Amino acid sequence: MAKDIFGLVLVLCLSCSAFAATKGTKQPSWTELSAQDQQTLAPLAPRWETLTTQRKKMWLGIAKNYPSMPPAEQVKVQRRLERWVKMSQAELRTVREGYKDIQKLPLAKKQTLRQQWDEYNKLPEEERRRLSSTAKVPPPKVPLSPPTK
Question: Helix/strand/coil (H, E, C) string of the chain?
């Protein structure tokens, strides 16, 4: 789960340029999307009309870059999109907070994180599963119980 969330955070970080490319564009309804965008963003169809303008822009930016991605990258995007749609609001909030935290980091730290992520992805699947199962989950940002006086 932590691996999936981190992967989604990175996808969001990497899609910043895609988001910027759609700035100022009209936010179409689902039926106004091109057939290619509808196909790329198909898992979002049931939720499309409830997405904020900002979220629509982000997804449209990803869809715009999708055709130029290598096939392996397209498969990754589709898998992550399907997982994203299945996430609860709490999980989505966690991903978004992680994204915001990464955006605040200095460029050198972001590059280090990217390098570590690339190295992790080069590991055999078995090793990634083992690491994922032993990953430490950071403590919650909100105390579980009110402080005692």
Answer: CHHHHHHHHHHHHHCHHHHHHCCCCCCCCHHHCCHHHHHHCHHHHHHHHHCCHHHHHHHHHHHHHHHHCCHHHHHHHHHHHHHHHHCCHHHHHHHHHHHHHHHHCCHHHHHHHHHHHHHHHHCCHHHHHHHHHHCCCCCCCCCCCCCCC
Burial category of 8 from C-beta neighbours within 10 Å (exposed 0-12, middle 13-18, buried 19 and up): buried
C-alpha dist (Å) from residue 1 to 83, 95, 107, 122: 11, 11, 26, 18
Domain spans of the chain, in order of start? 2-134
Taking only the tens place, the pLDDT of each residue in 84-135 is: 888 888 998 898 898 899 899 999 999 998 899 899 889 998 998 888 888 7
Residue type, 109: K
- The C-alpha atoms of residue 95 and residue 91 are separated, in whole angstroms, by 6
Check: pTM over 0.70? Answer yes or no: no
